[in-house]
Amino acid sequence: MSRRRLRVGVLDVESGHLHGTWFQEQLATKYPTLEMAIRAVGTRPRRSRIAENGTTIPIREFYSEPIYLALVDKRVDIGVHRMKDLPSELPAGVQLVAVTKRLTPLDVLVTADGAILDELEEGSCLGVSSLRRQAQLARYRPDLEIDFVVGSLSERMEMVDSGRLRGIVIAAAGIEWRGWQERVTEVFTCQVCIPAVGQGALGLVVREEDVELASTLRFLNHTMSQREVTAERAFHHGLGAWEGAPVGGLARVKGDILKIEGCISSLDGKQIIRGRAEGFPDDPVRTGERLAKVLLDKGAARILEDPANGPVF
């Protein structure tokens, strides 16, 4: 590798710094003489609106713009970001060069007393940070109060410990990054909540012209995770869903078969369309597109086109 110093861009949030440190350690193992600097390039926007019932609802859930801007402006050389936060179509001028080995892609519940979802009292308040979770949990437990909460994972955990929230639903990977697995009360199956597309993996992005750097970073690409995430992103793109829509998708490679399950929900959880598809692991895009067609044939477009379920900008 010709260059001897790399600038690594991450979001200036708790998880961003964890991801940046991990990446620095991985690269240092293979290139011990390479100098790296972690640069926080911005934070996720706190844009939201207040519903009639007082619930805070996000205007958008994808926060990767600062990474792209830093790359295009040449303030950083590499962007490290959660795959679930990367839009299905990357902006011009940047390329995804590696998908890291995936951690547990499922959602989990954290409560202070160890109660699982089926044991929560009617009217209990659960905190979530995505419309997808809000919609699916409203479907499964319509008697609960599902509130959209923001803040770092540490801050949200404190809401549970202080009694402000009965529990929070978060990504298992976020817990695993911090080594807090003992706090997990329940791991949700897809029958309860299908996770976000790309959840559990990191993506490495660079400028399109940085061919040498792209080649250097590909050793961090995990083939099975990359195929699973690619199928999920193709599913989301094939649906024509807006970024942050209440869409869940999970693909898994099982031997020589790639299986994917997905859903689209109305925001109130009263409408949900689910489906499955199978294909070959070396053709993940076609498998994801096949699932999108299954849902569209079942009427997914009606949910996406309903103004009540659309994005607010």
- Oligomeric organization of the protein chains: single chain
What class, by secondary structure content?
A: alpha/beta
CATH architecture of the largest domain: 3-Layer(aba) Sandwich
The number of distinct structural domains comes to 3
| Mean pLDDT metric | 90
Q: What is the approximate shape?
A: globular
Fold-level CATH name of the largest domain: D-Maltodextrin-Binding Protein, domain 2
Indicate the radius of gyration in whole angstroms.
19 Å
Which percent range fits the helix content? Answer: 25-40%
Please sum up the structure shown.
Helix content is 30%, strand content 26%. It is α/β, with parallel strands linked by helices. It folds into three domains: 124 residues, D-Maltodextrin-Binding Protein, domain 2 (3-Layer(aba) Sandwich), CATH 3.40.190.10; 81 residues, Periplasmic binding protein-like II (D-Maltodextrin-Binding Protein, domain 2), CATH 3.40.190.10; 91 residues, 2-Layer Sandwich (Double Stranded RNA Binding Domain), CATH 3.30.160.40.
3D structure, described in words:
- α7 runs parallel beside α8.
- It is globular, with a radius of gyration of 19 Å.
- The protein has three domains: about 120 residues, D-Maltodextrin-Binding Protein, domain 2, CATH 3.40.190.10; about 80 residues, D-Maltodextrin-Binding Protein, domain 2; about 90 residues, Porphobilinogen deaminase, C-terminal domain (Double Stranded RNA Binding Domain).
- The strands form four sheets. It has a five-stranded mixed sheet, sandwiched between helices.
- The longest helix has 17 residues.
- α1 links the parallel β1 and β2.
- It has about 325 residues and is α/β, with parallel strands linked by helices.
- It has nine helices and 15 strands.
